[in-house]
Specification:
It is a single-pass membrane protein; Single-pass type I membrane protein. One of its GO terms (cellular component) is plasma membrane. This protein is α/β, with parallel strands linked by helices and 902 residues long. It is built from eight helices and 53 strands. Among the domains are: 250 residues, Ribonuclease Inhibitor (Leucine-rich repeat, LRR (right-handed beta-alpha superhelix), Alpha-Beta Horseshoe); 92 residues, Phosphorylase Kinase, domain 1 (2-Layer Sandwich); 69 residues, Transferase(Phosphotransferase) domain 1 (Transferase(Phosphotransferase), domain 1), CATH 1.10.510.10. It is 13% helix and 20% strand. The strands form ten sheets. The chain has a 24-stranded mixed β-sheet, covered by helices on one side. It has a six-stranded antiparallel β-sheet with strand order 43-47-48-46-45-44, with helices on both faces. Strands 20-22-24-26 form a four-stranded parallel β-sheet, with no helix packed on it. A hairpin with a 6-residue loop joins strand 1 and strand 2. The longest helix has 34 residues. It is globular.
C-alpha cells in the first residue's frame, strides 16, 4: 500500500516536470509520415476498438492519446507524446516504425496486452524521456540497444514476464530518475554498475529471481527514496552502505535469504515510513536505535530468527499502523511503551516466546483490526480495552495462558471474521451477545474451562464455517438452531458434558466435513439424518451413551475417509452391510458396544481401511478376507462370541459336518432361490433383447435411468440422473469442456448448486459392440483407490444407449489447457513444483500403496486436472493396468504419442 502511494506521488511529480520541457527542436519526420506509421501499427493490432478516432479524416494531433507540439523555428507540429494506458490494446510493437517518431518525448502503453518482444528499434527514440510499458505481456530480454537512450528519465517495465539478466549497460542512462523492473522473471545478480545512477530516486527490482548479494554500490544512490528488492533469492548481509540512503521513505528486502543482523545504523534513516524485512534469516536483537524512526507507519520484521526482547524505544514510533514481528525467537516482556502507539491497526506478535501481561491499553485508540498474540506464554487477563475495540476483524490469542471470565472482556464486533481463543485457561460462559458477530467465519475456544450451555443464539452466526467448542465443561443440549449454520464444515463439541439427543437438524448441514461429538453424555439413537451430510469426511460419536442400531443411512457418506468412530456406546443389532460403500474410509472403530451377528463379507470392498476395531462386542462368524483384516492384530477382534478367520490369533473357521434338518432346509431354500432368480434373469434378458430388436430408440426421459446400471455414490441415483440430463440439456455441445479418445467431458451444475464433471463415453454410431474395457477399467481403478491427488469418482451410469462417469469438478480444468491459456502467467515455479509433487504423490500411491498396484500408462498434461488452488489430481484411468503380483512386466503399447516412455 505504502509502495503504491509512493509510486503514484513520484509519477505525478515527474509528469509535472516533463510537461515543463522546452519546445521540440528540429526533427526530420513530418506529421503525415508519423500518422501513417501509427495507422499501420493500428492495423496490426488484434484489439483496437479504443483507437476509432485514429483515421485519415482528422489530424493525428486530434487522435486519442496523441499530443503534438510545434517544432522550434518551424510553423508545423510533430507528435511528442503517445499515452494509451488501459486501452485494451493487444498485439505487437514490431510493426511500429519508431524511426518516424524521433520527436517523441513520452510513450505510455501501460496496462494493455502488448507483447512479446520489445523491439531494439525502440532505441531510435533518442529524445524519449519517459517510457512506460507496465503490465503487458512482454517476454523478451531488455534490448541492449536501450542503453543508448541517454535522455530517458522514467523507465518502467514492471509486471511483465521479461527474462534474462538486467544489463549492466543500463548504467549508461545517467539521467535516469525512475527505474521499475519489478514482477518479471529476471535472473542473475543485481548489476553493481547501477550504483552509478546518481540521479536515481526510485528503484524497484522486486518479485524476480535475482540472486547473489546486494551490491554495496547502491549506497551511492543518495537521492533514493524508494528501494524495493523484495521477493528474490538474494543472500548475504544487508550492506552497511545502505545507511547512506538518508532520503529513503520505503525500504523492502522481504522474502529473500538474507542473513546477519538488523543494523543499528538504520536508525539514521529518519525519513523511513515503510521498513519491511520479513521472511529472511536475520538474527540477533532488534536495535534500540529503531526508535529513531519516528515517521515509520509500517514495520514488518516477521518470519526471521530475531532474538531478545522488543526495545522500549518502540514507544517513540507513535505513527505506527502495523507492527509485525511474528514467527521469530523474541522473548521477554512487552514494553509498556507500546501503549504510546494509539493508532495501531495491525499488531502481530504470534509464535515467539513472550511472557507476562499484554499492555492494558493495546487498543486505546480504537483502531485495532488485527490482533495476533498466539503461541506465546502470555498470562493474566485479556486486555479490558478489547471490549470496546469494535473495529476488530481478526483475533488470535490461542496457545497462551490467559485467564479470567472471557464473557467480561469481549464485546460486540460487527466486522469480526476470525476469533481463536483455544488452549488457554479462560473461564466463564459463552455469551449470547456473541451471536452479534454476524461476519464470523471461524470461532475456536477449545481447551479452556468454559461452563454453562451453548447459547441457542449461536444459530444466528450463519456465515460460520468452523466452530470448535471442544474440551471445556459445557453442559445442556446441542441447540436445534445449529441447523441454520449451513456453511459449517467443521463442528467440534467433543470432551464436554453435553446431554440429550443429537438434533435432527444436524442433517441440514450439507457442507459439513468434520463432526466430532465424542466424549460427552449424549444418548438416544444416532439419527438417520446424519446420512444427509454427504460431504462428511470424519465422523466421531464415540464415548457417549448412544443406543439402537447403526443407521443404514451411514452408507450414504461415501466420501467419509478419515474416521468413523462409534466406540464406547451401547449400540445393538447387526453391523449393516451398507458400510461397505465407505470405500474411502481409513479408520473404522465399532468397539465396546453390544453389536451382534456376523461381520458382513462385503466389508472386503472397503479397500482403503488401515485400522478396524470391532472388539468388545457379541460378534461371531468369519472375519472378512481382505488386507485390512489380515494385517489387523487380534486385539481388534478380542472379546467377541466366536469370531474366526484369517486374522493371526483367531481360530480358523471350521467347515460344518453333517447338516441338521434346519440347516438342510436353509441350503434347499438358498438353492431354490438361486434357481428362481437365475430363471428370472434369463427371462428378463430375453425380453430386453427382443425389445431392443423390435422397438426404435426412444428419447431420454425420467424412466431412462431404469434401463441401465446406475451408481451415484454421493447422491440419490434417479434424481441425479435427471439432474445431469437437465443440467447439460441432454449433453448439448455448449456444456462440453473437453474431449478425448474415449469420451467427452461436460460441466453439469445441478439445481442444488453442486458442480459435477460428467464424462460421456463415445459409443459407435451403428449397432456393434462398444469397447467396454476403458469404461470398466476406470470404474475398477477409481472405486478401489483414494488419494487427495487422484480425481474422485462419484458414480457411473451404464446402459446400451449411453454410458457416463460422474466426477468431482476441477475448476481450472486440465494442466494442458492452463499452460495454453493466460492463466499460465499465474504458474510460477513454486506452483509448478507443487503440481509435480502432487502428481508424484499420486503415482507413488498407485504403484506402492495399492493392492494390486495400478499403472496409469497415460500421464499427460491433459490428464492432470487442477482445482482453484492449483492442486493437481491425476485423471483418466481408461487404459490403466492393474498388476497382479505374479504378472510379467510386459504390456501392450499404450498411451498418448509424445508422452510415451522411451
Amino acid at each position: 500500500m505504502a509502495s503504491q502511494l509512493h509510486k503514484t506521488l513520484f509519477c505525478a511529480t515527474l509528469l509535472l516536470l516533463l510537461l515543463l520541457l522546452p519546445r521540440v527542436p528540429l526533427v526530420k519526420a513530418s506529421l503525415g509520415s508519423q500518422g501513417s506509421a501509427l495507422l499501420h501499427w493500428k492495423a496490426t493490432l488484434r484489439s483496437r476498438q479504443s483507437l476509432r478516432s485514429w483515421n485519415l479524416n482528422s489530424s493525428p494531433c486530434n487522435w486519442t492519446g496523441v499530443t503534438c507540439n510545434p517544432v522550434t523555428g518551424r510553423g508545423r507540429s510533430v507528435i511528442t507524446e503517445i499515452s494509451l494506458p488501459s486501452m485494451g490494446l493487444a498485439g505487437l510493437l514490431d510493426s511500429l516504425d519508431f524511426s518516424t517518431l524521433g520527436s517523441l518525448l513520452r510513450l505510455n502503453l501501460s496496462y494493455n496486452q502488448l507483447g512479446e518482444v520489445i523491439p531494439p528499434a525502440i532505441s531510435t527514440l533518442s529524445m524519449l524521456v519517459s517510457l512506460d510499458l507496465t503490465s503487458n505481456q512482454f517476454t523478451s530480454k531488455i534490448p541492449i540497444e536501450m542503453s543508448s537512450m541517454k535522455d530517458i528519465q522514467f523507465l518502467s517495465l514492471s509486471q511483465n514476464q521479461m527474462v534474462g539478466a538486467i544489463p549492466p549497460s543500463l548504467s549508461n542512462l545517467t539521467g535516469l530518475v525512475y527505474l521499475d523492473l519489478d514482477n518479471n522473471k529476471f535472473v542473475g545478480a543485481i548489476p553493481k554498475e547501477l550504483g552509478r545512477l546518481h540521479e536515481l530516486m526510485y528503484l524497484d527490482l522486486g518479485a524476480n529471481s535475482l540472486f547473489g548479494s546486494i551490491p554495496f554500490g547502491l549506497g551511492n544512490l543518495t537521492k533514493l527514496y524508494h528501494l524495493g528488492l523484495y521477493q528474490n533469492q538474494l543472500t548475504g548481509v544487508i550492506p552497511r552502505e545502505l545507511e547512506n540512503l538518508v532520503n529513503l521513505i520505503y525500504l523492502s528486502v522481504a522474502n529473500n535469504n538474507l542473513t546477519g543482523g538488523v543494523l543499528s545504523s538504520f536508525g539514521n534513516l529518519t525519513k523511513l515510513q515503510s521498513f519491511v524485512l520479513w521472511r529472511n534469516k536475520l538474527s540477533g536483537p532488534i536495535p534500540f536505535e529503531i526508535g529513531n524512526l519516528v515517521e515509520v507507519t509500517d514495520l514488518d520484521f516477521s518470519e526471521n530468527l530475531l532474538t531478545s526482547s522488543i526495545p522500549s524505544s518502540i514507544g517513540n514510533m507513535t505513527k505506527l499502523r502495523e507492527l509485525s514481528v511474528f514467527n521469530n525467537q523474541l522473548s521477554g516482556l512487552l514494553p509498556m511503551e507500546i501503549n504510546n502507539i494509539i493508532g495501531l491497526t495491525y499488531l502481530q506478535l504470534g509464535n515467539n516466546n513472550f511472557v507476562g501481561h499484554v499492555p492494558p491499553n493495546v487498543c486505546k485508540g480504537g483502531t485495532l483490526k488485527h490482533l495476533s498474540l498466539h503461541t506465546n506464554n502470555f498470562q493474566g487477563l485479556i486486555s479490558t480495552t478489547l471490549k470496546n475495540c469494535t473495529g476488530l476483524v481478526r483475533v488470535r490469542l490461542e496457545h497462551n495462558q490467559f485467564t479470567g471470565d472471557v464473557s467480561q472482556y469481549l464485546g460486540v464486533y460487527p466486522h469480526l471474521s476470525y476469533m481463536d481463543l483455544s488452549f488457554n485457561r479462560l473461564s466463564g460462559t459463552l455469551s449470547p451477545d456473541w451471536a452479534k458477530w454476524h461476519n464470523l467465519t471461524l470461532f475456536r475456544i477449545s481447551n479452556n474451562n468454559i461452563t454453562g450451555v451453548i447459547p441457542t443464539e449461536f444459530g444466528q452466526l450463519t456465515k460460520l464455517r468452523e466452530l470448535d467448542l471442544s474440551s471445556n465443561d459445557l453442559q445442556g443440549e446441542i441447540p436445534n438452531s445449529f441447523g441454520s449454520l449451513t456453511l459449517l464444515y467443521n463442528l467440534s463439541l467433543s470432551n464436554n458434558q453435553l446431554v440429550g439427543h443429537v438434533p435432527l437438524e444436524i442433517g441440514m448441514l450439507s457442507n459439513l466435513e468434520l463432526l466430532d461429538l465424542s466424549s460427552n453424555n449424549l444418548a438416544g439413537r444416532i439419527p438417520d439424518q446424519l446420512g444427509d451430510c454427504m460431504k462428511l469426511r470424519s465422523l466421531m460419536l464415540n464415548n457417549n451413551n448412544f443406543s439402537g442400531t447403526i443407521p443404514l443411512a451411514i452408507g450414504n457418506l461415501v466420501v467419509l475417509q478419515d474416521t468413523f468412530d462409534v466406540s464406547h456406546n451401547s449400540l445393538t443389532g447387526e453391523i449393516p452391510s451398507q458400510l461397505s460403500k465407505l470405500v474411502m474410509l481409513q479408520s473404522l472403530n465399532l468397539s465396546h458396544n453390544s453389536l451382534s451377528g456376523h461381520l458382513p463379507s462385503s466389508l472386503t470392498y472397503m479397500t482403503s481401511l488401515s485400522t478396524v476395531d470391532v472388539s468388545y462386542n457379541e460378534l461371531d462368524g468369519p472375519v472378512p478376507d481382505s488386507p485390512a483384516f489380515r494385517r489387523a492384530p487380534a486385539e481388534w477382534f478380542a472379546h467377541n462370541i466366536d469370531l474366526c478367520g484369517v486374522v493371526r490369533g483367531l481360530p480358523p473357521c471350521v467347515s460344518p459336518g453333517t447338516p441338521t434338518r434346519i440347516a438342510s432346509m436353509v441350503v434347499i431354500t438358498i438353492i431354490a432361490s438361486v434357481v428362481f432368480f437365475l430363471l428370472l434373469f434369463i427371462s428378463i434378458a430375453a425380453a430386453l433383447r427382443f425389445h431392443k430388436r423390435k422397438k426404435p430408440p426412444v428419447p431420454v426421459d425420467n424412466n431412462h435411468v431404469k434401463e441401465g446400471a446406475f451408481c451415484i455414490l454421493n447422491f440419490v441415483g434417479r434424481d441425479v440422473y435427471k439432474g445431469i440430463i437437465e443440467a447439460t440439456e441432454d449433453f448439448d455441445a455448449k456444456y462440453c469442456i473437453g474431449s478425448g479418445a474415449y469420451g467427452s467431458v461436460y460441466r453439469a451444475e445441478l439445481a442444488s448448486g453442486e458442480l459435477l464433471a460428467v464424462k460421456k463415453i463415445h459409443l459407435p454410431d451403428t449397432e456393434g459392440t462398444c469397447d467396454e474395457q476403458p469404461f470398466q477399467t476406470e470404474i475398477q481403478a477409481l472405486t478401489q483407490i483414494r488419494h487427495r491427488n487422484i480425481v474422485k469418482l462419484y458414480g457411473f451410469y451404464s446402459s446400451p444407449r449411453r454410458k457416463f462417469l460422474v466426477y468431482e469438478y476441477m475448476e481450472r480444468g486440465s494442466l494442458g489447457s492452463v499452460l495454453r491459456s493466460e492463466i499460465a502467467a499465474e504458474l510460477d515455479w513454486v506452483k509448478r513444483l507443487s503440481i509435480v509433487k502432487d502428481v508424484a504423490r499420486a503415482l507413488f500411491y498407485m504403484h506402492h500403496d495399492c493392492t494390486p498396484p495400478i499403472v496409469h500408462r497415460d500421464i499427460t498434461s491433459n490428464n492432470i486436472l487442477l482445482d482453484s488452488e492449483f492442486k493437481a489430481c491425476v485423471s483418466d484411468f481408461g487404459i490403466a493396468r492393474l498388476l497382479k503380483p505374479d504378472s510379467s512386466n510386459w504390456t501392450m503399447l499404450a498411451g498418448t504419442r509424445g508422452y510415451l516412455a522411451p
